[in-house]
């Protein structure tokens, strides 16, 4: 499953595919066991890059490439601060510029120099100090804006969650209903059987009649169940979310009148006498003068008429001189 | 089919004069090219005149025909016809002095084998070059491969050639079916075949559609056997009303016959005079493209050597 191994214990990952890899802020991976091992000893340094680490900084790796995980972390942090939305800007261009700025530090839209992205910088530990300073400055300046944006974000998230909850509840409800239905049906069947047995015991009528009655009742029960299954619960919502009672305005579709299409068969100018059709060849007698097809030739669909037709076509094509 | 082929659109010309004019232009173009490039010691007498070029052209054409006839495995007639047509078309727009006919003719044969789906591997093709050592055959094959793209280009990528052999078969079938007046059309076949082979050595392929050439062949052989066939044209081909067309068709046939009559085998002594001059021209004005072709194989070889290497195999080696 995973082609990379834990850099410390190396073998354990291959032998134990269920073992999870943890990533930390420096972007290097360690399997769970090694994480434990590392912090048991009290020292908290990464094996490969020797940066001081805290145990809480380790998160379960979601992506195959640990650098991606690291970048995702940093992006989350940065976007918590730089969280302006598209309606905060008056034009698309401004919004794009802002986005670039988030990726592009300081130099803005200066295309001449290679872009140093904020996230890029942090991910690659370039200029970390400068970037952190810049971020703090921005945070101070736009404190209120950040708060407001956070609020809208949370509100949106809440709405989404509400919808999800509703859906889940709907599903649950349906499931319960179905279960209940099935229960009821089972009970009805059991009651029916029980009733039959009782009647057989107590009633005076001969057994055959009783059995026939029972069968009739069972059939009735079946049809009842079928009908129940088929009754659609009335809803008032289409799947797209439009209410059923809502009237939708129908704009009249403009009528397009056009000339009726007439088929004209293709006419190919061969500059020669007309060639008989393939099917007519044998009738007119051409095929008598052509070598007959051998049995092995006919397997592929070859007939002597084909060769004959081709020869005649070639003979007549271009035979007449051009007019004028 | 022929009626919507590139042959009818681009490679059928109105008259022998037009064809002669094109050849003159090619000759002139080469002369101008050499004079413009300013190579030293250029005198007008060094260049070949049109009729001299013609002699050489016919000579090499005959050699191509002999090569194709001696080919093993036996080359179908259509392949031979296509090769001859390529050769003819190539030298319509190019001068013999610019590209030596001996390589071009082999390239024509090679290309026509491919186009006509007569599968011959290059080793097999090389094996047909008798009088050559295997190493020599390799060298010739290399040259053929180098010239192949040039040939295709000069043919303007119109590679499908309609030969008169199948139309002739078709006409014979039609005669047998619809023209009982003529008792034995098979008797016409042999002499019609000869007519067609001779016509392939003339410009007939560039002036007339192949079906007309085939018809001319058949009518000619009927005439030779003193069998009358006029009613075939009027009755069966439906030209009863169309006197104009009939007269035009007879006219074309007469022109074809003249072409065949005019053809003369190249005389050996003339050839022997013109060939060394051709060789000299090639030796002196070997175009830079040759050097480039050789050049990429081995850089150190770019210089005088390529020209000499080309001369190593001569015409005699082929036959």
Automatic annotation (TrEMBL), chain B:
Q: Which InterPro entries match?
A: Cyclin-like_dom, Cyclin-like_sf, Cyclin/Ssn8, Cyclin_C_2, Cyclin_N, CyclinH/Ccl1
User: Gene3D superfamilies attached here?
Assistant: Cyclin-like
Asked whether the keyword Cell cycle is assigned, the reply is yes
- A single Gene Ontology CC term: transcription factor TFIIK complex
Q: Name one GO molecular function term.
A: cyclin-dependent protein serine/threonine kinase regulator activity
Keyword annotations: Cell cycle, Cyclin
Q: Where is this region: Disordered?
A: 288-319
- List the biased-composition ranges (Basic and acidic residues): 295-310
**Cell cycle recorded as keyword:** yes
**What GO biological process term is on the record, naming one?**
regulation of transcription by RNA polymerase II
Q: Which residues form the Cyclin-like domain?
A: 62-153
SMART domains membership? CYCLIN
**Assembly and interaction partners:** Associates primarily with CDK7 and MAT1 to form the CAK complex. CAK can further associate with the core-TFIIH to form the TFIIH basal transcription factor.
Indicate the family of this protein.
Belongs to the cyclin family. Cyclin C subfamily.
Annotated function: Regulates CDK7, the catalytic subunit of the CDK-activating kinase (CAK) enzymatic complex. CAK activates the cyclin-associated kinases CDK1, CDK2, CDK4 and CDK6 by threonine phosphorylation. CAK complexed to the core-TFIIH basal transcription factor activates RNA polymerase II by serine phosphorylation of the repetitive C-terminal domain (CTD) of its large subunit (POLR2A), allowing its escape from the promoter and elongation of the transcripts. Involved in cell cycle control and in RNA transcription by RNA polymerase II. Its expression and activity are constant throughout the cell cycle.
Protein name (database record): Cyclin-H
Q: Which organism is it from?
A: Scophthalmus maximus
């Amino acid at each position: 499953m995973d082609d990379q191994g834990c850099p410390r214990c190396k073998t354990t990952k291959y032998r134990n595919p269920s073992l999870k890899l943890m990533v930390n802020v420096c972007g290097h991976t360690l399997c769970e066991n090694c994480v434990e091992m590392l912090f048991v000893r009290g020292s908290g340094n990464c094996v490969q890059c020797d940066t001081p680490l805290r145990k809480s900084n380790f998160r379960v790796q979601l992506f195959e490439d640990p650098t991606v995980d690291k970048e995702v972390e940093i992006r989350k942090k940065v976007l918590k601060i730089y969280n302006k939305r598209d309606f905060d800007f008056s034009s698309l261009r401004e919004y794009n510029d802002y986005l670039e700025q988030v990726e592009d530090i300081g130099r803005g839209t200066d295309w001449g120099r290679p872009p140093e992205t904020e996230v890029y910088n942090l991910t690659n530990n370039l200029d970390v100090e400068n970037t952190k300073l810049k971020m703090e400055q921005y945070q101070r300046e736009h404190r209120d804006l950040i708060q407001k944006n956070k609020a809208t974000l949370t509100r949106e998230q809440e709405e989404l969650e509400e919808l999800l909850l509703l859906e889940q509840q709907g599903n649950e409800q349906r499931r319960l209903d179905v279960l209940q239905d099935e229960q009821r049906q089972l009970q009805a069947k059991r009651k029916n059987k029980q009733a039959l047995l009782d009647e057989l015991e107590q009633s005076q009528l001969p057994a055959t009649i009783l059995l026939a009655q029972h069968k009739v009742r069972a059939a009735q029960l079946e049809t009842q169940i079928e009908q129940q299954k088929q009754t659609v619960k009335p809803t008032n919502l289409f799947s797209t979310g439009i209410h059923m009672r809502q009237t939708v305005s129908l704009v009249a579709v403009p009528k397009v009148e056009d000339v009726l299409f007439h088929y004209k068969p293709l006419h190919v100018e061969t500059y020669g006498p007309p060639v008989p059709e393939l099917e007519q060849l044998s009738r007119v007698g051409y095929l008598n003068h052509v070598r007959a097809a051998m049995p092995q030739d006919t397997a592929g669909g070859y007939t002597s008429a084909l060769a004959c037709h081709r020869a005649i076509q070639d003979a007549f094509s271009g035979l007449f001189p051009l007019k004028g | 089919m022929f009626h919507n082929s590139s042959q009818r659109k681009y490679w059928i010309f109105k008259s022998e004069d037009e064809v002669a004019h094109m050849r003159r232009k090619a000759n002139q173009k080469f002369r101008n090219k050499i004079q413009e490039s300013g190579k030293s010691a250029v005198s007008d007498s060094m260049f070949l005149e049109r009729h001299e070029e013609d002699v050489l052209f016919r000579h090499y054409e005959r050699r191509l025909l002999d090569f194709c006839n001696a080919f093993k495995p036996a080359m179908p007639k259509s392949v031979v016809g296509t090769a001859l047509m390529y050769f003819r078309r190539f030298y319509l727009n190019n001068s013999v002095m610019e590209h030596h006919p001996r390589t071009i003719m082999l390239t024509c044969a090679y290309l026509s084998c491919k186009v006509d789906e007569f599968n011959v591997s290059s080793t097999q093709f090389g094996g047909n070059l008798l009088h050559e050592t295997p190493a020599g055959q390799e060298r010739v094959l290399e040259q053929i491969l180098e010239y192949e793209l040039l040939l295709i280009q000069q043919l303007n990528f119109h590679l499908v050639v309609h030969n008169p052999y199948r139309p002739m078969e078709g006409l014979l079938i039609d005669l047998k079916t619809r023209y009982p007046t003529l008792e034995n059309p098979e008797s016409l076949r042999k002499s019609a075949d000869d007519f067609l082979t001779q016509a392939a050595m003339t410009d007939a392929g560039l002036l007339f559609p192949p079906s007309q050439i085939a018809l001319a062949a058949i009518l000619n052989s009927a005439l030779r056997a003193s069998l009358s066939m006029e009613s075939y044209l009027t009755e069966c081909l439906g030209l009863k009303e169309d006197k104009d067309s009939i007269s035009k068709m007879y006219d074309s046939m007469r022109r074809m016959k003249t072409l065949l009559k005019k053809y003369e085998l190249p005389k050996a002594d003339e050839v022997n005079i013109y060939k060394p001059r051709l060789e000299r021209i090639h030796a002196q004005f070997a175009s830079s493209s040759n050097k480039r072709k050789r050049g990429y194989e081995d850089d150190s070889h770019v210089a005088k050597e390529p020209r000499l290497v080309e001369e190593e195999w001569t015409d005699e080696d082929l036959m």
